[in-house]
Amino acid sequence: MTQLSQAILDRFQVRKTQKQKDAFITLLKEHFPELSIQKGGFAKSRNLILGDVSQAKIVLSAHYDTCAKLPFPNFIAPKNLLLSILYSILIALPVVAVMFIISYLLNWLTQNFWVNYGVCVGICLVMIYLMLAGPANNHTANDNTSGVIALCELYSALTAEERTKVAAVFFDNEELGLLGSALFRKQYRKEIKDKLLINLDCVSDGDHFLVAVNKAARQHYYVQIKNAFTSTDEKQILLEKAERVYYPSDQANFPMSIAVAALKHKKLLGYYMDRIHTKRDIIFDEKNISFLTNALHKLIQLL
Ligand SMILES: [Zn+2]
Which 3 state secondary structure label does DSSP give 195? Predict the structure, then answer.
């Protein structure tokens, strides 16, 4: 890995406050002086852009913002929507039970509907606030330091000529609801109408790479994608139709897109990720980064 990648992994994993993001942007600018910043939108997002979006054939992206820490693992099984929903219900059950008890006690104590209602709505709002704006998760090896580093490694490896084909974008505020990528789409609507975007989110924990390709991307680039992303003995490619998998990330904002994520596999569970948004998000498999940057480099050469 480059010095820059090692620095990000060692010292810049938390990028949640304005100050933490400032420090990360300064570091990136030291290595890529040409970096430009797109500012704006509801949460004053700052997207970081390398390359010329209007000239590029392909846009590669990864969100750099950090999520709030959750007390429970954020389990996702992209190929098994039912399991993902069942897990959410399971997580919600204790919360619903606690709310029910509080509501029952308040009713008994005050016998006032509005007090009861106000407290319950208040608790819900505080919980939503904590999930979005609560204390930062201090460990983000996979989500999404891995995507950021993969993008830096790839961009560093490209020749000057290859760079003319590529724009690399580090999106802000994905965790608040894909806000940075929405801002990017708004400004570059025309330029990205028929441009391939590949989004890297959580790519360092698991030997199985989900490559979820939407319809427009399949129509234009299926052969190149298939030739660039090939399995090895160690790393397996799961080439899927985006409509058939559930993977919420920034690619959802773009008309021609591919989502890339690393998954683990167990016989009973199928393909899944289970550590992100918690203090257990510490798995950083460097082999994943080199596998992915090689595949993307190959794809760029094929375009
Ligand atoms: Zn993420």
Answer: coil
Segment of 38-42, 60-64, 271-275 carrying the highest mean pLDDT: 60-64
**Greatest mean pLDDT among 47-51, 71-75, 129-133, 173-177:** 47-51
Residue 144 CA, ligand 1 centroid: distance in Å? 5
Q: What is the pLDDT of residue 115?
A: 79
Q: Tell me if the bond preceding 144 is cis, omega within 30° of 0.
A: yes
Query: What is each CA distance from 124 to 116, 129, 212, in whole angstroms?
Result: 13, 9, 34
Collapsing DSSP to helix, strand or coil, 171 comes out as strand
Give yes or no for a contact between 172 and 67, defined as CB atoms under 8 angstroms apart. Answer: no
Q: How far is the CA of 244 from the centre of ligand 1 (A)?
A: 20
The total of other beta-carbon atoms located within 10 Å of residue 272's CB is 20
- Enumerate domains of the chain plus CATH numbers: 3-72+137-302 (3.40.630.10)
- If you measure from the C-alpha of residue 294 to the centroid of ligand 1, how many angstroms do you get, rounded to a whole number? 21
Distance 96 CA to ligand 1 centre (A): 27
User: How far is the centre of ligand 1, averaged over its atoms, from the C-alpha of 203 (Å)?
Assistant: 9
Calculate how far, in angstroms, residue 119's C-alpha sits from the geometric centre of ligand 1.
32
* 135-152: pLDDT as tens digits: 889 999 999 999 999 999
Measured in angstroms, how far is the CA atom of residue 275 from the centroid of ligand 1? Answer: 12
Q: How far is the CA of 162 from the centre of ligand 1 (A)?
A: 27
Distance, CA 106 to ligand 1 centroid (Å)?
Answer: 39
43 confidence band (pLDDT: 50, 70, 90)? confident
Of all residues in the chain, the percent with pLDDT exceeding 90 is 75
Write down the pLDDT at residue 91: 83
Is there a contact between 5 and 152 (Cβ–Cβ < 8 Å)? yes
Separation of first and last alpha carbons in the chain:
26
